[in-house]
Design goal:
Elements lengths: L1 H20 L18 H6 L1 H48 L1
Length: 95
């Protein structure tokens, strides 16, 4: 019985790693960092544009974090479901 549990646990971990490495979920793309020129004159000349870039970045990075959290949650749920299916499978083939 202990050996069976160890096999099931090992298989579950292996399956979780396999499922988490699959690229089937949503792709969350990190936003590009805003560019700030090192030249003071250029920074002043394009200050409004640079401010908009920073505001856009802050909004985009928040969306990025939400996307990553949603994908983590989806992948975790999927891994649990697959793990349960694997448990059912191992019981089926051992009967």
């Amino acid at each position: 019985m202990l050996e069976r549990r160890q096999i099931f646990f090992s298989a579950t971990i292996t399956l979780f790693i396999f499922v988490s490495s699959m690229a089937r979920g949503e792709t969350c793309l990190a936003p590009e960092r805003p560019f700030v020129p090192s030249d003071r004159h250029a920074a002043r000349e394009y200050a409004d544009l640079i401010r908009r870039d920073f505001k856009s970045y802050i909004s985009d990075v928040q969306n990025y974090f939400q996307c990553m959290e949603g994908e983590r949650s989806r992948a975790f749920t999927e891994a649990q479901e697959v793990s349960q299916k694997y448990g059912q499978f191992t019981q089926l083939v051992q009967e």
